[in-house]
Amino acid sequence: METIYDILKAEHDQMADLLQQALRDSSKVSFLKVKLKADPHMMGEEKFFYPVLEGEDKLSELVSHAYEEHNEAKVLIYEIEGMDERDEEWTAKISELKQSIDHHIEEEEGKVFERAQGVLSQEKAEEIAKQYIEFKRSYMNRIETGESLT
Q: In the chain, where does DSSP find H-type helix?
């Protein structure tokens, strides 16, 4: 059975590829693919993964930092979303977003996952994975049907 680490790592790899593509072609379409992957990913982590870790002494500071990095990425995504791809700042903002997310992924995989694996049982990591997958499935269904995301 897949754990939350397996799923998040695979999504991190996809995100890195999407960001690279967005930087390469500087298109709004490529950016929107990044946003469509990033939004539910961050929401799912904040809803299912981080809360379980917050109460652990070894992880509370790291999780707090991860929330801050998510907020930074959300602000950048919001700013880019409001820009035109022909804007002279467009590529610089995409690059800034890529650096921010790359840094977050590196810290999350290198520190958070490692410490979380010492705290969460295999069963708990699998349970969180199931909740996360169901959340993402529901989120994408709402996107496709035009339902509210709030």
A: 4-25, 28-44, 50-54, 60-81, 90-107, 113-117, 122-145
Q: Could you read off the pLDDT of 41-68 as tens digits, one per residue?
A: 999 999 999 999 998 888 999 999 999 9
Nearest to 135 by CA among 120, 149, 121: 149
Non-local (6+) Cβ contacts of 66 within 8 A are 45, 50, 104, 107, 108, 112
- Whether pTM > 0.90 for this model: the answer is yes
| Domain coordinates in residue numbering, the chain | 4-145
**Amino acid 55: pLDDT:** 85
CATH 1.20.120.520 at 4-145, yes or no: yes
Helix, strand or coil, per DSSP, at residue 138: helix
d(CA 30, CA 22): 5
